[in-house]
Design brief:
Blueprint (H helix, E strand, L loop, with lengths): L4 H16 L7 H10 L15 E5 L2 E2 L7 E8 L5 E8 L4 H4 L11 E6 L10 E3 L8 H8 L14 H5 L3 H30 L1 H13 L5 H9 L1 H6 L5 H11 L12 H17 L24 H14 L2 H10 L7 H9 L5 H5 L17 H22 L3 H13 L7 H11 L7 H14 L13 H6 L12
Parallel strand pairs: 4-5, 5-6
Antiparallel strand pairs: 1-3, 2-3, 3-4
Helix pairs in contact: 1-4, 6-7, 6-16, 6-19, 7-8, 7-16, 10-11, 10-12, 13-14, 14-16, 16-17, 18-19
This protein binds iron/sulfur cluster.
Iron/sulfur cluster binds next to helix 18 and helix 20.
Length: 476
């Protein structure tokens, strides 16, 4: 291989790691890339205790908390193939050192993959170093910088999707997006039938603001809203105390807090101690929340402060109804909705992410544009849609659907990135938030019910039987 300045520079870090690998295991990131690409002598893999291992699918690289690969399919000795997670560590002792042994997220691990050394867990353990399919320096060079999913990770639907016209792909995604909107609206309607439309909206807002890790404690608080509201009206500070207190997130440990945090906590406790006893039965333990590994802006404390302001203001439904009556272009949709959702918190929340965080140099927003989009697409528009359906208001229904379809794209996320690669083989441009929702619906309807190998998935058949817009007959 001809060395260039670029290739040498790119490998500088890797080469150092390879040199070190004589005495130390390579960095975990490289080992994960090695596992993902299966650069192993795959026909002779054995666990440390001598059983044969067949990797039918290495799983999908998980870049978030939890095991490194999800949905792997492996077969050990003559047992039936099993599906689960794979954890890749440099050495076996990392299993305990990284806390995996006591982390429930790792209960689904079916194979522990390590560079070399003895096993320290009861899990089937596979060594990488003795099974490499090329000398390590060569492999390390090849693996450095790989971020794209290898081509063999393509879903079985990729080829039939690629054979479609772009207009046909768009029509398919638009239809899937429509299904998702109606499913969400139906959920809203079911909730409204039992608890009323306002409760259905709050339920959706609380859940959505739980983001993906704290949906359940947020839902619990939404379900307790009648009790919380029965305590009487109060201002934004009172609502903060009520919500944070009932959430179990109002600490009374003032040691180590900044002066500003101590002052604000004392103000909140001044409210909370009067209501605490009445709400004791519904108060959550702090352990109900997942607080580690969150971006500060997504911390549930900030989400509850936002909700507290909306509850104190008492006019959220009116504001949203007003928003539905105004005319606005595609680019104004998020801005105009954001104007109705934005709140003015006290100074403490403008400059601190949480009670523990130091004062920030830049102001901390309680509600960014990405979250406005999430709330619009997942809660507010489905809620309006459900109301229009029940009220048989066809004109308004079309207006709501038009907003849904016009909404600009939401922030990308790991599920979308993976789905785009499996379905389209790369970063296909999705036209707005609705098409993103369409992709998520395909994942929900098909990928979530099939193994990583796509076995028995019926989506490729659906794509192949899609009405041909070029004028030909659909394949029979
Ligand atoms: S499971 Fe189905 S929809 Fe998902 S990637 Fe495989 S073939 Fe495509």
């Amino acid at each position: 291989m001809t060395e260039t300045f670029y290739s040498q520079w790119r490998l500088a870090g890797t080469i150092a790691a390879v040199r070190d690998a004589v005495t130390e295991p390579p960095p975990e990131r490289l080992l994960q890339a090695l596992w993902q690409r299966q650069r192993l002598q795959r026909d002779s893999l054995r666990t440390l205790d001598g059983r044969s291992v067949r990797v039918l699918h290495p799983g999908f690289w998980n870049h978030e908390a939890g095991p490194d690969f999800r949905d792997a399919v492996i077969q050990i000795a003559n047992a039936a193939p099993i599906s689960g997670a794979v954890e890749v560590d440099s050495v076996s002792a990392d299993w305990r050192a990284h806390g995996h042994a006591v982390n429930p997220a790792f209960a689904e691990v079916i194979l522990h993959v390590i560079w070399n050394g003895p096993a320290h867990t009861a899990l089937p353990t596979l060594l990488l170093q003795p099974h490499l399919d090329a000398p390590w320096p060569e492999l390390a060079e090849e693996l450095a910088g790989h971020t794209q999913l290898p081509v063999e990770f393509a879903g079985q639907c990729r080829a039939p999707l690629a054979a479609m016209l772009t207009a046909e792909q768009n029509a398919l995604l638009d239809q899937a997006a429509g299904v998702r909107l109606r499913i969400k609206a139906k959920t809203m309607e079911r909730h409204a039938r039992r608890h009323g439309w306002d409760a259905a909206l709050w339920h959706g807002l609380f859940r959505a603001l739980g983001y993906k890790h704290n949906v359940w404690p947020m839902q619990h608080l939404a379900e307790q809203l009648p009790f919380l509201q029965a305590l009487g009206t109060t201002d934004a500070t009172g609502w903060q105390a009520r919500l944070l207190g009932a959430a179990g997130l109002l600490t009374d440990d003032l040691r180590g807090q900044t002066d500003a945090a101590q002052e604000w906590l004392q103000t909140l406790w001044h409210h909370w101690w009067r209501e605490r006893e009445a709400l004791e039965e519904i108060t959550l333990p702090r352990t109900a929340w997942r607080l580690g590994g969150l971006r500060p802006a997504n911390h549930p404390i900030r989400r509850l402060v936002l909700l507290a302001h909306w509850l104190a203001r008492g006019d959220l439904v009116d504001r949203l109804e007003n928003w539905m009556t105004i005319e606005c272009s595609r680019t104004q949709l998020g801005v105009t909705l954001g104007e109705r959702l934005i709140v003015q918190p006290v100074s403490f929340w403008k400059w601190h992410w949480t009670f523990r965080s130091p004062r920030q140099k830049r102001r901390c927003s309680l509600l960014g544009s990405a979250r406005v989009t999430d709330l619009a697409v997942n809660v507010i528009l489905p809620w309006f849609y459900a109301r229009c359906q029940v009220g048989r208001n066809q004109l308004e229904l079309e207006r709501v659907e038009a907003r849904y379809r016009q909404w600009p794209s939401a922030q990308d996320n790991a599920v979308l990135k993976l789905a785009r690669q499996r379905l389209f083989g790369g970063p296909r441009r999705l036209q707005g938030a609705a098409q993103q929702q369409g992709v998520l619906q395909i994942v929900r309807d098909f990928c979530d019910h099939a193994p990583a190998t796509c076995e028995d998935c019926s989506f490729p058949d659906l794509v192949q039987s899609w009405p041909d817009q070029r004028g030909g007959e659909p394949d029979s």
